[in-house]
């Protein structure tokens, strides 16, 4: 087992990883940017080392500085968390070259799955259903136009290197296709430094269903059931649940089998997620694989009683997964609400600033993963997520009532948050009846723009 792990991240996920390491008896090194000097992860780790200025490209994305910090502190592994360098094949290779173990997949897995168009090809070859769409990528508007015509409207234009819900455009009408394609392409060039695009059929009002995978070096690949991440704002997840309680056993088995097939097709090792869209007729389609731990991993941890970060660390250290598919039992229902520092009355714009008062809810079945405290100054530089409220209930109903209680108890003053927006969702009739899909917020909630 590793003796010391450097955590190349910040915020709640850095704390989450430090906690897992402590329980495994592994020493931890935090890295931080100059503006994160007072961040909790810096205080909670055994050692901390500054890796540059606030700007992520000079600190949390600075591979040289992170690798140097690993040498200086004699850490034997790096946990990248999510975001930042977690899905960078270049970073994975750099770690390999320096003989530092990266707690995550290999460079080739990230490369194969990180390019959405390549991932589609791999899935088609493996017999995993994908959304009908273009075979490869294209930068040519006329070629794309013809493809869209073949696929049939509505279509979704996606950036091959896109992520985080960005770089996508839905087109309902062929008249405006070329204009949208060009806009999406130039957005992609700026955001991802890659303007290769591909086209998919736009599935109307699907559920976003994803399967958690764990795979070790010895060919054991297991899934830990699904998460329903249909409550999204502009293709970004806001509420996640596990399991998806409208799904029957046979569909769960079918989708689980496909998720395993997808992971095995690339010889995947580590924790990962296979994402699908599920349409109204129970057809499901692979959309992408995330080759990292995800924000919403706690809902799966709660219903399976498996610590995903610990498993990920053990797998990276060369251990065998010591349970099998039959051992995975789903118990109860878990829900996560992502609390962001943003102003819901002003188009959800980020609301950085100093937290004056912070009261943390508690009680049975409640888990709060957060890096904030009273007096903490949220910098404008990073992601606006400040807390994850996670609850467990014996069934969906109990979990919802518990989450409502938690949303009532929590106090965060000094900044704006989306807490009231979550309250509204949890009071919505359709949400309560589990009649949700990825268009829920746009159709049910938004009076935003
Ligand atoms: P990202 O990598 O940016 O998160 P994804 O491919 O995972 O992008 O898609 C994010 C979300 O966008 C999905 O959960 C879904 O809501 C929507 N989406 C993506 N592809 C389609 C599609 N073909 N049809 C309908 N919605 C889609």
UniProtKB/TrEMBL annotation:
One of its GO terms (molecular function) is metal ion binding. Pathway: Lipid metabolism; malonyl-CoA biosynthesis; malonyl-CoA from acetyl-CoA: step 1/1. Residues 1-446 form the Biotin carboxylation domain. It catalyses: N(6)-biotinyl-L-lysyl-[protein] + hydrogencarbonate + ATP = N(6)-carboxybiotinyl-L-lysyl-[protein] + ADP + phosphate + H(+). It is an enzyme of class 6 (ligase). InterPro entries: ACC_Biotin_Carboxylase (IPR051602), Acetyl_CoA_COase_biotin_COase (IPR004549), ATP-grasp (IPR011761), ATP_grasp_subdomain_1 (IPR013815), BC-like_N (IPR005481), Biotin_carboxylation_dom (IPR011764), Biotin_COase_C (IPR005482), CPAse_ATP-bd (IPR005479). Keywords: ATP-binding, Biotin, Fatty acid biosynthesis, Fatty acid metabolism, Ligase, Lipid biosynthesis, Lipid metabolism, Magnesium, Metal-binding, Nucleotide-binding. Residues 120-317 form the ATP-grasp domain. It holds the Pfam family Biotin_carb_C. The keyword Transcription regulation does not apply. GO terms for biological process: fatty acid biosynthetic process; malonyl-CoA biosynthetic process. Its EC number is 6.3.4.14. Acetyl-CoA carboxylase is a heterohexamer of biotin carboxyl carrier protein, biotin carboxylase and the two subunits of carboxyl transferase in a 2:2 complex. NCBIfam families: accC, PRK05586.1, PRK08591.1. This protein is a component of the acetyl coenzyme A carboxylase complex; first, biotin carboxylase catalyzes the carboxylation of the carrier protein and then the transcarboxylase transfers the carboxyl group to form malonyl-CoA. This is Biotin carboxylase.
């Amino acid at each position: 087992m590793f003796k010391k792990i450097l955590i190349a991240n910040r915020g709640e996920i850095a704390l989450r990883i430090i906690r897992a390491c402590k329980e495994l008896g592994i020493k931890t090194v935090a890295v931080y940017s100059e503006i994160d000097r007072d961040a909790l992860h810096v205080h909670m780790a055994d050692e901390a080392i500054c890796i540059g200025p606030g700007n992520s490209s000079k600190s949390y994305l600075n591979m040289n500085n992170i690798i140097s910090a690993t040498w200086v502190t004699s850490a034997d592994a790096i946990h990248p968390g999510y975001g930042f360098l977690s899905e960078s094949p270049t970073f994975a290779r750099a770690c390999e070259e320096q003989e530092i173990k990266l707690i995550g997949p290999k460079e080739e897995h990230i490369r194969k799955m990180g390019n959405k168009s390549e991932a589609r090809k791999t899935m088609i070859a493996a017999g995993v259903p994908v959304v009908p769409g273009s075979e490869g990528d294209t930068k040519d508007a006329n070629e794309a136009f013809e493809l869209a015509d073949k696929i049939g409207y509505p279509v979704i234009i996606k950036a091959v290197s896109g992520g985080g819900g960005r770089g996508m455009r839905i087109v309902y009408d062929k008249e405006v296709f070329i204009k949208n394609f060009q806009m999406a392409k130039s957005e992609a060039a700026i955001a991802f430094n890659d303007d290769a695009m591909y086209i998919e059929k736009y599935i109307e009002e699907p559920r976003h269903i994803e399967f958690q995978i764990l795979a070790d070096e010895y060919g054991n690949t297991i899934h830990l059931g699904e998460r329903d991440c249909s409550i999204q704002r502009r293709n970004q997840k806001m509420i996640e649940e596990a399991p998806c309680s409208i799904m029957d056993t046979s569909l769960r088995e079918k989708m689980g089998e496909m998720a395993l097939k997808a992971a095995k097709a690339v010889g995947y090792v580590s924790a990962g997620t296979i994402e699908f869209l599920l349409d109204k007729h129970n057809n499901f389609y692979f959309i992408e694989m995330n080759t990292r731990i995800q924000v919403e991993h706690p809902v799966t941890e709660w219903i399976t009683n498996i610590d995903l970060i610990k498993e990920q660390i053990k797998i990276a250290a060369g251990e065998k997964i010591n349970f099998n598919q039959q051992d995975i039992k789903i118990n109860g229902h878990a829900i996560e609400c992502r609390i962001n520092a943003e102003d819901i009355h002003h188009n959800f714009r980020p609301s950085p600033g100093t937290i004056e008062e912070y009261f943390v809810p508690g009680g049975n079945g409640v888990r709060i993963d957060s890096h904030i405290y009273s007096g903490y100054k949220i910098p404008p530089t990073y992601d606006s997520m400040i807390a994850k409220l996670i609850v467990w209930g014996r069934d969906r109903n109990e979990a919802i009532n518990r989450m409502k209680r938690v949303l009532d108890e929590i106090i965060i003053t000094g900044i704006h948050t989306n807490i009231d927006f979550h309250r509204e969702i949890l009071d919505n009739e359709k949400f309560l009846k589990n009649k949700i899909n990825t268009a829920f917020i746009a159709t049910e909630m938004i009076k935003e723009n």
